[in-house]
Request: fold
Amino acid sequence: MYFPIYRPRRMRKDAFSRYLIQENYLNTKQIIYPIFIVDGVNQQQDIEAMPNVKRYSLDRVLKVCENAINSGVYTIALFPVIEPHLKDENGSLALDPDGLIPRAIKHIKNRFPQLGIITDIALDPYTSHGQDGLIDESGYVINDETVGVLQKQALLYAQSGCDIVAPSDMMDGRVMSIRSILEDNKLIHTKILAYSAKYASAFYGPFRDAVGSKTNLGKSNKQTYQMHPANIQEAIREVQLDISEGADMVMVKPGLPYLDVIKSIKDRFSFPTFAYHVSGEYAMLHAAAKNGWLDYNQALIEIMFAFKRAGCDGLLTYAALDIAKLIKENNI
Ligand code: PBG
Reply:
């Protein structure tokens, strides 16, 4: 094809012809809204680095769910915020049948049975040291013992009515263990969204503030279980393992800095592939927009198309309801 026979600008001239050749679309049905929940009554707490994201008490969260459904967002992900004095070394509260998450699931399902609920399977919101699992004397997160607890946590949340359990801990063998305990308990419809390629990332900063694990974690890091940002082949091995262990969906996290990982995984496995547009990515966008350095709405939509091009199916983002509004208004 040579100029002037082929003039690519011909199709870009008018809106209708631009629509005709648009390759990707955004759909609220594949957007997942993460929600922070906190104990208490009538709570709606701001999170400094995450504008418009709040921690809600259970009496307030139903309204948020209703807004999501009315916006065409049909899946939410719940994250608990636990008071510091209730955290301990072993994250015991993660297994409390009357804990915040089991109560939240029942409360929301009771009102909105059709709303898909995802819960994180990991101990960091509950541990006094802020790590995702149990630690030994040296502070090392011990794999197999942790997996035993995660299995129980997943079973409890599934029994409470959670649709999708999402192990975010990066322990070895946890997907297989969770799948087997679900099978043993006849919970054959509970889905597993595996945080398969989760990197040891600076972009989780605002989230750790939001759930209060930042101070607990202190100067420690998660490099003995989360992946090094330099690696992609390791991500492929992790995904391969999780698929073989029984995951229904795999996820890459963070999102935008790892688009190559998403693309490689999607091309290689043809498996439902998700990304988490994490708290730090959301915070960066808001910070720049607040300074007038870029347009929040335009930049947000551009980022969403990047995920789509890379081959993402679903996407978790704190901007879910903003995107829904833009899709509705702008004929995107
Ligand atoms: C906990 C968990 C984290 C996030 C989701 N689940 C933080 C971490 O691993 O330290 C981060 C989400 C975000 O930054 O938006 N296992």
Observations:
- Strands lie at 31-38, 44-46, 54-56, 75-81, 116-121, 164-167, 191-198, 249-253, 273-277, 315-317.
- The first strand starts at residue 31 and ends at 38.
